[in-house]
Design a protein that fits this description.
Layout lengths: L1 H19 L4 H13 L3 H14 L4 H14 L2 H14 L7 H16 L4 H13 L5 H9 L4 H14 L2 H13 L3 H13 L6 H9 L5 H14 L5 H8 L4 H14 L5 H4 L8 H14 L3 E2 L2 E2 H4 L9 H13 L3 H11 L4 H12 L6 H10 L3 H14 L3 H14 L5 E4 L8 E4 L11 H19 L5 H11 L6 H7 L9 H5 L6 H15 L5 H7 L5 H14 L5 H7 L5 H16 L1
Helix pairs in contact: 2-3, 2-4, 3-4, 4-5, 4-6, 5-6, 6-7, 6-33, 7-9, 7-33, 8-9, 8-10, 9-11, 10-11, 11-13, 12-13, 13-15, 14-15, 15-17, 17-19, 19-20, 19-21, 20-21, 21-23, 22-23, 23-24, 25-26, 29-30, 29-31, 31-33, 32-33
């Protein structure tokens, strides 16, 4: 403490001496940056302003003042000073380092805003830059008192994976009490391959009081950490008295294609837990097991075909179908035509992922079923095999518009292997506005993409009608979690709509191309539309421009950062950094 006080006394004395004498630009900047080095931006601003009064024509001192103002949190004053500097030194407009400093000043100021939306947008903006300077900001927000901010910070931290972030995620995994933050932590530990979290994840899986969502997430996280497994460890899991760990054993065998472990999960076909029986059957299907110990697979799972749990019957039917046995078709057809819609759709999803083995069954039931979602699932399977494509596309197109007032989702809750198109049961998520609508839009874009790839003649009409009837709802936080790369062909039809006479369609098409494809073709439309759309749409446009990362957008973004609305400045600052890094 004494040393620190002495140090500051020396610095202050040195400052007074410099201010009293004629100083060079180099000496003045050295002193200003010295204050910043010890995280004292207040003194840096004071000295920079004093030096600037003595040397108003000094470009280095002006730039040092701007940086000091940014680090102090006076981002508005920094931008005013930047405008004055441009008038004196026009060449600084192309100084990428200073543009970056100004943008980070906006983001760092937003982090401390009392407004939740600004705080979250600053966090997202910083994380999207993929810059090491985002790590301290993420660490701060992982420790926030606001659970929503913590959950967003966890999701974003999993993309970085830096050591300090891993340590904080591990600490939170042991102490966090808010369930949706815990769910993010479990998923993040898997994405980061946080091996020391294995005991905690196993405890979550084995605890009978664990929520179903947490258990499923913990199994996925743990399985993703295994590149190999010792036979003894697998035996320990398979013989555990906890159903969750027995289920984990089956998932690992399937994930690793661990043929030596198949014999260990055969007894689990008769397990007391239907989830474990279904997991064992799923492993058999994934690995295309034909026989075990000289016993063919159909005989081995004969009892499962008549299981008391319908979902186990359906999974067993799928395994038998893959072996080419007619019994599989009989089981799956029975359930696809049953009175229980949940099971009809599960069975149709199983057929759709059966490859060539399910083609005949799918084409037959497609003509019999009256359930639009069964028909859609079967159509997707047929399109995937390029069989009966015209019929499948017509069916999908018809269902798309017949059910346009129903929000959709991909449902794989019963068995993760069987993804079924279903009416949405997605709940509202606090940190993603309009989350059910976001999910619905992305599902529908998936289907439109499929129709476009197979060059279905009505695909462009379908895309246009979709854009006319929708308000694009993907926000920054949704983009962080849901953006996916699209096939080049699938965006061709959307790209054609950039010249549509209706402005709403042009904007929607441009947002899709930018956010989902990173297509520079969207930039011009987005920039032209920006001045006369409402503020929420302006945010979406800035997020889209950030995802494209076109350096030609920099002058446009510099103008936006002058706007009085902090949310827009924050999103524009993030976009600016991403364009500078592109």
């Amino acid at each position: 403490m004494l040393f620190r006080g002495l140090f500051f006394s020396v610095v202050c004395a040195f400052s007074l001496e410099l201010l009293a004498a004629e100083v060079t630009d180099e000496a003045a900047c050295k002193q200003i940056y010295g204050h910043l080095l010890i995280h004292d931006p207040i003194s840096a601003v004071v000295d920079a302003k004093a030096f600037l009064e003595e040397r108003p024509e000094s470009k280095p001192i002006r730039l040092a003042l701007i940086r000091s103002l940014c680090e102090k949190g006076n981002e508005t004053e920094a931008w005013e000073e930047w405008q004055r500097t441009i008038l004196l030194f026009p060449d600084v407009q192309t100084d990428r380092r200073m543009l970056e400093v100004l943008a980070w000043g906006v983001l760092n100021k937003g982090e401390n805003s009392p407004q939740l939306s600004i705080c979250i947008n600053s966090l997202l903006g910083a994380a999207f830059t993929q810059d090491a300077r985002a790590v301290p900001l993420l660490l701060d927000q992982l420790r926030s008192t606001n659970a929503m901010i913590r959950s967003v910070a966890v999701r974003l931290s999993s993309v970085y994976g830096d050591g300090p972030l891993q340590e904080e995620i591990f600490r939170m995994l042991k102490t966090e009490n808010v369930w949706y933050v815990r769910l993010e932590l479990i998923q993040a530990s898997g994405q980061m391959r946080l091996h020391k979290a294995r005991p905690i994840l196993k405890e979550i899986i084995g605890n009978p009081k664990t929520l179903a969502e947490e258990k499923a997430a913990a199994i996925v996280a743990l399985v993703s950490m295994y590149d190999t497994i010792a036979l003894q460890e697998l035996k320990s899991l398979a013989h555990s008295d906890r159903a969750g760990l027995r289920q984990l054993a089956c998932e690992i065998v399937g994930h690793l294609d661990f043929k030596l472990g198949v014999a260990e999960i055969v007894p689990l076909l008769k397990d007391t837990s239907p989830e474990v029986r279904m997991a064992a059957l799923s492993a058999f299907g994934i690995m295309r097991v034909r026989e075990v110990g000289g016993i063919d697979v159909v005989s081995l799972i004969a009892n499962n075909l008549n299981d008391s749990a319908p979902e186990v019957q359906i999974t067993a039917g799928w395994v038998v179908l893959l072996s080419g046995d007619k019994k599989g078709e009989e089981i799956l057809e029975k359930w696809m035509l049953s009175d229980e819609e949940r099971l009809r759709r599960l069975a149709s999803a199983a057929v759709s992922v059966s490859g060539k083995y399910g083609v005949k069954l799918a084409s037959r039931v497609l003509k019999k079923s009256e359930d639009p979602y069964v028909k859609a699932n079967l159509s997707l399977g047929l399109i995937g095999q390029r069989e009966h494509v015209s019929l499948a596309c017509d069916t999908l197109y018809s269902v798309f518009f017949q059910e346009q007032d129903v929000m959709w989702m991909w449902d794989n809750q019963i068995n993760p292997l069987f993804r079924s198109l279903s009416p949405s049961k997605v709940s509202h998520v606090e940190h993603i506005p309009h989350y059910p609508m976001v999910v619905d839009q992305l599902v529908r874009l998936d289907l439109l993409s499929i129709l476009s790839i197979v060059r279905y003649p009505k695909a462009q009409n379908a895309v246009k009608m979709f854009l006319q009837n929708q308000t694009w709802g993907v926000t920054g936080s949704a983009a962080a979690t849901l953006i996916q790369e699209g096939d080049e062909e699938s965006f061709g039809i959307v790209r054609d709509l950039l010249d549509d006479p209706e402005e709403k369609i042009r904007i929607q098409a441009a947002l899709i191309l930018a956010l989902l494809g990173g297509d520079p073709a969207a930039v011009k439309v987005l920039q032209e539309s920006y001045p006369h759309v409402e503020r929420e749409m302006k945010v979406h446009i800035l997020e889209a421009l950030a995802h494209v990362g076109d350096p030609q957008t920099i002058p446009f973004l510099m103008e936006i950062i002058k706007e009085p609305f902090q949310v827009l400045r924050v999103v524009a600052a993030s976009a600016l950094i991403q364009c500078l890094y592109h």
